[in-house]
User: Fold this.
Amino acid sequence: MNVLNLNIMEDPLFIVLQRLYASKGHSLYIVGGTARDLLLHRAFSDRDYATDATPEEEKAFLQDADYTYERYGSIKLKIAQERIDIATLRKEDGYKDFRHPGKVVFVKTPKEDYVRRDFTINSLYLDPDGKVLDYCGGLADLKDKIIRFVGVPEKRVKEDPLRILRAERFADSLAFTIEPNSQAAIDKYRYLLAELNPAKIKEEERKGWKRIK
Assistant:
């Protein structure tokens, strides 16, 4: 695990929520695109956090959250017009619809959680002390401007073909390069994009991704 210190005061909403979670005996981390963009010193709007609290436990102190996807460990908040996604640390398995896991098991540590994430650069966790927890070389890939799947690329693409679009969107928007094994998996399983809900493709396009035919 690589550790680096970062000034988390750049995300004051995290400070407020982290103190709330800590007062209830739970941990909260900045993760995903928010952690990535903080490390790249890029502006961000949506906020992605991860916690060891389950949605059922969060209901005791976050009554106004949106619990529509609580079965997947995901809740949504809106504070002062800011959108916040909070995901319970978890393991996933059994993707049956090319999008959602058939099995979700809540866990307690980022080290158990990171293996389900898509890319190494999105698998970095910032703790309340500003330490960056890196279990899969995400910091090195950020430095080298590389998009790399976590784990076995072919498995990650077959689980969720939307990751093809996300890889290409990040490569385009960040001016990064998709590493060869990840690109090979994308090319091999591009036909699985036909299994996706067209609305998901449109959502990626709205985020600035230009589809590769």
